[in-house]
Amino acid sequence: MKYPPRKVFVLEDGMYVELTYAKFHQKKECYAGRRFIPLYGMLMEVSEGDYKAFYKDKRRQKYLDERSAKNGDFSYDMLTTDEFNGEDILVDMASDTAGDIEKKIMLDNLRLEFAKLSEDEQKILYLIYGQRLSERVVAERFHVSQNAIHRRKVQILEKLRKAKNLK
User: Which of 91, 92, 95, 141 lies most in the core, judged by the most C-beta atoms within 10 Å?
Assistant: First the structure.
């Protein structure tokens, strides 16, 4: 402790007895071998198990604080003031379960409709959207004009939009 404690609580016959630090210091030989932990500017006698647990937790907290400082960790609690709660700037990342399920159902339906397309229609969409090739490059592969591929792509997408399961 940086400063001497104001009070000391000693176990006598199973009850705590309050002493001033000066009295405690005068009788320190009587208390040799007993375990005391600092609490709120005071010393309190505790069992050996409580003493070990207290200092184990204290060492662990010191280790975590040192590791956080070394890693440059940041706590939003550091931003908390009387007017502002630091945690208020955190974004709620909880997912929209209903929206996620709806999206999954729509994707499943889209896969089913995609499977109904002809092989050439699937290949055109795969090359444009899956491989991110330009319509001009796809047109060269199919030996047609870029305008023809564009019209074909629009027709395929419209076909998918009109599929009853995607509405």
Answer: 141
- DSSP code at position 6: S
Domains of the chain listed by start with CATH number: 7-79 (no CATH), 97-166 (1.20.140.160)
Report the run of H or E that residue 68 belongs to, with start and end: helix 48-71
Given a contact cutoff of 8 angstroms between Cβ atoms, the answer to whether 46 and 8 are in contact is no
How far is 127 from 110, CA to CA, in rounded Å?
A: 17
pLDDT single digits (tens) 4-56? 788 899 988 888 989 888 888 888 888 888 999 998 889 999 999 999 999 99
DSSP state of 3: S
Rounded Cα–Cα distance for residues 153 and 159 (Å): 10
Strands (E) in 13-128, as ranges, are 15-20, 35-39, 42-46
User: Token pair of 22, please?
Assistant: 């000066």
Q: SS3 of 78, please?
A: helix
Task: Yes or no: say if 16 and 10 are a contact pair by the CB < 8 Å rule.
Answer: yes
The answer to whether the Cα torsion of 136, 140, 144, 149 is positive or negative is negative
- Report how far residue 50's alpha carbon sits from residue 11's, in angstroms, rounded to the nearest whole number: 14
Are the beta carbons of 126 and 137 closer than 8 angstroms? no
